[in-house]
């Protein structure tokens, strides 16, 4: 586990990757409803992949679906710790796993 956490810390140092930790104290849990990915490609419609417990994932380009997931994503980001604080939390967790 410590190697995985160390890898996340390394990745957080790259300019194109942002890692934010959502603390257990977060008020809402929109990310627990199922995983999702939003793909944005220049010149093409945004696309989302949605997973849900016990069901197969699905892909959607419907603007209302992508918009709802984008809103959910922004809510998660708003409650997550900023990147610098998140990296420190990952470093602390790495030390705990190593000892």
TrEMBL record:
It comes from the Bacteria. It holds the Pfam family DUF5753. InterPro entries: DUF5753. Residues 1-92 form the DUF5753 domain. This is DUF5753 domain-containing protein. It comes from Streptosporangium carneum. The lineage of its organism: Bacteria, Bacillati, Actinomycetota, Actinomycetes, Streptosporangiales.
């Amino acid at each position: 586990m410590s190697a995985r956490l160390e890898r996340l810390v390394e990745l957080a140092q790259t300019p194109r990757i942002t890692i934010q930790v959502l603390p257990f104290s977060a008020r809402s849990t929109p990310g627990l409803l199922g995983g999702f990915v939003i793909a944005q490609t220049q010149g093409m419609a945004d696309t989302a992949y949605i997973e849900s417990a016990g069901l197969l994932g699905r892909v959607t380009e419907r603007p209302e679906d992508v918009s709802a997931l984008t809103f959910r994503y922004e809510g998660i980001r708003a409650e997550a710790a900023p990147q610098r604080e998140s990296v420190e939390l990952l470093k602390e967790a790495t030390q705990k796993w190593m000892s």
